[in-house]
Amino acid sequence: MEFHTDFKPLTVQPQEIEERSFEMITEELGEHSYTAEQYPVVQRVIHASADFELGRSLVFHRDAIRAGIEAIRAGRPVVADVQMVQVGISKPRLEKFGSTVNVYISDRDVMEEAKRLNTTRAIISIRKAIKEAEGGIYAIGNAPTALLELIRLVKEGAAKPGLVIGVPVGFVSAAESKEELAKLDIPFITNIGRKGGSPVAVAAVNAISLMAERTG
Q1: What is the overall mean pLDDT for the chain?
Q2: Are the C-beta atoms of residues 161 and 154 closer than 8 Å to each other?
Q3: Which of 7, 105, 111, 137 is the most buried (most CB within 10 A)?
Q4: Among 125, 181, 188, 126, which Cα is nearest to 159's?
Q5: Distance of alpha carbon 45 from its chain centroid, rounded?
Q6: Domain ranges of the chain
Q7: DSSP class of residue 185?
Q8: CA-based diameter of the chain, in Å?
Q9: CA torsion angle for 212, 190, 104, 95 (degrees, to 10)?
Q10: Rounded distance, CA 202 to CA 145, Å?
Q11: How sure is the predictor about 144, in pLDDT bands with cuts at 50, 70 and 90?
């Protein structure tokens, strides 16, 4: 059976589609208080989610963008809380600087330790990550417990991330974990409320890696 439609796309060229999308986002977003260096992150988050409310809810530490660019250009690793974040991040740009995207949540030792301690794999994966990713970028889009554990370790001086992108989505502890992150005086990108998710974390990392590439 064949289906017919009268709708014709404005363009089928990927670059043109992206450029027109960004133009529409800028037009619809209107006036905002984000800086010129923060705006590319906001723009890509809205592009990934089609959610202007989410875009307007983003909160940046004053050093977030600079710290993220420096971490990538120094070849520091990116730590993803789940595979969905790892898969979405553009690897070629990071590889130019010797950076990798690591995820630990499905590692056998993490699963065994989480079972032994009767806790979440997300928590144990962060405990493992801090031993291998000092100065790296943590991209957390799904697990509030991972973000809360990272915050605890930062407060104790055990974790020294270069940038924390903490945007977990959900109902239990998601909004609260982001509120706690925003209290820290370390480079972070987060948002207010329950919204977030893998596409948001991915969009933020990709926006920063693009800026790192262009300033290289």
Answers
A1: 93
A2: yes
A3: 137
A4: 126
A5: 9
A6: 57-215
A7: S
A8: 63
A9: -10
A10: 19
A11: very high
Q: pLDDT tens-digit profile of 198-216? A: 999 999 999 999 999 987 5
User: If you search the block for the tokens 């409310």, which residue do you land on?
Assistant: 53
On the question of pLDDT at 13 being above 80, the answer is: no
- Encode pLDDT of 156-202 as tens digits: 999 999 999 999 999 999 999 999 999 999 999 999 999 999 999 99
User: Which residues does the annotation mark as catalytic?
Assistant: 47
Give the whole-angstrom CA distance, residue 113 versus residue 128: 10
Is 90 exceeded by the pLDDT of residue 84? yes
Residue 105 token pair: 């949540």
CB 138 within 8 A of CB 129: yes
Its CATH architecture, for the domain 57-215, is 3-Layer(aba) Sandwich (3.40)
- CA-to-CA distance for 37 and 183, rounded, in angstroms? 22
Q: Show the tokens assigned to 39.
A: 């705006």
Cβ count within 10 A of residue 105:
24
Per DSSP, what are the bridge partners of residue 79? Answer: 102, 138
Cβ(208)–Cβ(69) under 8 Å? Answer: yes
Q: Token digits for 55?
A: 């875009």
Q: Which residues make Cβ contacts (< 8 Å) with residue 212, sequence separation at least 6?
A: 68, 69, 72, 73, 93, 97
Residue type, 186: I
CA–CA separation, 203 and 194 (whole Å): 17
pLDDT at 51: 96
